Amino acid sequence: MKFSLKLFFCFFPLIINYQVDCDAQQLRKISEETLREKIRGYWIGQLAGNYVGFPFENLYTDEAIPILIDRYYNFKDADTLQVKMNINDRRAFTNIMADALGGAWSDDDTDIEFVTLFAVEKYGLDISYSEITEMWKLHINRFIWSAARQARDLMESGYLPPVTGSKALNDYWYRITSQLMNEIWGVFYPGMLQTAAERSEWGARIMTDDWATHPDIVYGVMFSASFFETDMVKLMQLAMERLPLQSPFRQGMLDVLQYHSKYDDWRETRKLIHEKYYATIDGFTIPYPVGGAIINGLASMVALLYGEGDFTRTVAIATSMGYDCDNQAATCGGLIGILNGACQIPEKFTLELPSRSKWEKPFNNQYINYSRDGLPNYNNLDDIINRILTITEKAILEDGGQKFMEAGKVVFLVKTDF
To answer: Cα(129)–Cα(166) distance, rounded to whole angstroms?
Structure first.
């Protein structure tokens, strides 16, 4: 159900005159079982969204995809439905990939976070730029593009972040690259919004600069808060509070909220944000606008609002918005996965991807890494999720939270800051 204009303008003064009260803490309870289910929803939701959006990546710019992409499409659908698809590479053959690999597989919507997981396990949550650079040089060499590619090349020349993402040295500093690779920080810090925001920006500045880091901050906060808060408008408000008042992404989010209150059709909102945020940001002409951080980030905001908490509808709109759509679909899928838990992700996305059989567990409980050097090729999804849970537990306890037994179950008391 959409909120009213009256409700929007009740929020509006709070946003315009925001003051983040980092001392406003509240203890919130969450069971280990629920925490694991939400982390599972994050990882599995990202995978599903990634593969839904894959065939349409970077093909639709001025207009949205004419149909709603609410299932897996592949090369066979291109002529039948008269839609543009990436039929010259693996992206339009997801069912064949699923058959060949026997489960999920790595792509930059998850495999940079896969490296981050190993990095934090090795160096801790306070990992430094020199330490993450070491991990990038060991493991991230192929299947990276634009800002990430240039950041990696700069590392090879002896530079460390945040210089590797700076306007001075990285020609692609304005790109979406970083915001699809940092959501894991919001998962490491459930309910700890300020730390999630800070570490998300820390990760963003490896590859990007200035306002291009703002969607990372927003995602970090929204992912963190979504462990305890389900209202999408509230999640967006909490995230905007962490952005500078003059941020173009913050203004874009306000615009999306206002358009959503006026238009029932997400395509109307898409037209308006395209006109305002696609080609130019703060007087800077975007060299490659389909990959711009702001327009792609706003596409996610549109999907999250109009999707109304439903996994299928949210991922469908995120994909159908166009632009670099597999990234938005993955991010939105991960966020809705946290909100609702993995068990609420429809089986058509988790069990029915392969063409020859139906899996018994989501993505056959497998994650095949073929893109990140020096890390295991075969990975058990349950193991990945449990490893993330271990780090999340450490973050909760280090921040002053508690772990105890209640009615025979392990429960955490999290010191949240909202």
So the answer is: 14
SS (H, E, C) 328-389: HHHHHHHHHHHHHCHHHCCHHHHCCCCCCCCCCCHHHHEEECCCCCCCCCEEEHHHHHHHHH
Listed by start position, the domains of the chain span 5-416
Distance CA 332, CA 350 (A): 16
Instruction: State the Cα–Cα distance between residues 281 and 100, nearest whole angstrom.
Output: 43
Q: 201-248 pLDDT, tens per residue?
A: 999 999 999 999 999 999 999 999 999 999 999 999 999 999 999 999
pTM exceeds 0.85: yes
* pLDDT computed for residue 23 by the predictor: 52
The pLDDT score that the predictor gives to residue 18 is: 36
Please return the burial class of 156, using the count of CB atoms within 10 Å of its CB with bins 0-12, 13-18 and 19+.
Answer: exposed
Of 128, 123, 55, 43, give the one whose Cα is nearest residue 95: 55
End-to-end, the C-alpha distance of the chain in Å comes to 24
Instruction: Return d(Cα 204, Cα 183) in angstroms, integer.
Output: 10
Topology (CATH) of 5-416: ADP-ribosylglycohydrolase fold (1.10.4080)
186 near 200, Cβ under 8 Å? yes
How confident is the model at residue 79, as a pLDDT? 86
CA 272, CA 411: separation in Å to the nearest integer? Answer: 45
Give per-residue pLDDT as tens, 291-339.
Answer: 999 999 999 999 999 999 999 999 999 999 999 999 999 999 999 999 9
Token pair belonging to 401: 């939270």
CB contact at 8 A, 384 and 43: yes
